[in-house]
Amino acid sequence: MGYAAIQESFEEAVCIKITALMANVALIAPLLGPLVGAAWIHVLPWEGMFVLFAALAAISFFGLQRAMPETATRIGEKLSLKELGRDYKLVLKNGRFVAGALALGFVSLP
User: Fold this and answer.
1) pTM of this structure
2) Cβ atoms 95, 32 nearer than 8 A
3) 90 and 43, same structural domain?
4) Are 69 and 15 in contact (CB under 8 A)?
5) In terms of DSSP H, where are the helices of 68-94?
6) What is the mean pLDDT of the chain?
7) Do 96 and 60 share a structural domain?
8) Which of 5, 10, 89, 109 can pair with 14 through a Cys bridge, CB separation 3.0 to 4.6 Å?
9) Which residues of 48-81 are buried (b: 16+ CB within 10 A; e: fewer)?
10) CA distance linking residue 15 with residue 100, whole number of Å
11) Angle, nearest 10°, between helix axes 12-43 and 48-67?
12) Within a domain: residue 42?
């Protein structure tokens, strides 16, 4: 879940608490990940980690779906392919955006 979604969804005080929690998890995860992974391999086969990841992803998905407030302002509005195409055309006309997007894509190439 991104920081922008948190800032749009919650009051400032709650947003600060959630952001701090996310920062703590991001700091602790690289320390605990290898330790938990090594313990897992001693108890169960490593292929079982994929099942664990799928279960955690499902819990995260349904938890967010249940607890995350809706931020869309135009609920119930019909999807217009014409307007969608116009918006994409407008974005793709922005040369700085296209150059930045391509540069980010090419950076990850071997």
Assistant:
1) 0.54
2) no
3) no
4) no
5) 81-92
6) 89
7) no
8) 10
9) eeeeeeeeeeeeeeeeeeeeeeeeeeeeeeeeee
10) 29
11) 160
12) yes
